[in-house]
Amino acid sequence: MKKILALAGLLALMNINGSAETVEPIKYGDFEHWVTRHITESSIIGGKTKTIYAIGPTQTINGAKAYHNLGGSPWGTCNVYAKVMGVVKTSNAVYPDTHGSGKCAKLVTQMEHVKAVGIINMDVLVTGSIFLGSMREPISSTKNPYSKMEMGVPFTQRPKYLQFDYKLNAPTGDRTYSSGFGSKKTVRGRDYSEVFILLQRRWEDAKGNIHAARVGTGRMRFGATTPGWVNKHRIPIWYGNITNHAGYHSYMGLIPKDKSYHARNSKGKVVPVIEEKWDDANAAPTHMVLMASSTCGTAFLGTLGMTFWVDNFALVY
To answer: Structure pTM?
Structure first.
């Protein structure tokens, strides 16, 4: 009888421990559904019809129309429709791909070439990236890329981990910088793909400026080609000021003012989110910023061919 009771107690304890963890998928984070957009570029740059993709309910959109997140999808991508001085151009560096019997997101670092005889001949390096938020279309310039993105979504929870599946193809060699202005140049140093989740407590002042304190941080870089998929990978989320944490790296620090992400204030204007301090470790966030990217660091800089597949984003409590 004692042995039976002990076994029953052990099973009960295992059940309690097993049920203590909750995994909550992020909406559309399984990448099973995509919006397919067909846009004809201006005749001056070739007039070809290009296909670009957005993460949202399965459907097709034809024509050069500004895209707004559909079906409650919280995801934005770097894939954009641009219209600069009346010239329609597209860019696509995020693609649907396969993972097992389903789909995933494929993020690629590649070169976009724009040529109009006698007028323009330029190469722009683009990084495949997805993020929680939205892109402001049509894009009218390459100046300050972050100002074109509304980064972050309302969020008040305190998860322990960000969980996802990934696969990486990381070519060796130096990086390339090409913004479209001036010649391409080689920059020494290796490239990394990156995933991060930042929890912020945001507030707005009387002038409409948005400020933020960092509540939680989870950030990881990936530089080695994987032999296949790494499933249910977890990035821990650390709370409060983590600069003395054993796992802290400089890239996990507060966002510099000149690289601030942007958001729409209560007046409807998109402004920088100035992250100005670390918050208390017990603070409650108001927003979550999440991004996955085929490269990290400076805009227009990366290793061509760097390819990062991601799937099944979830929060673990």
So the answer is: 0.90
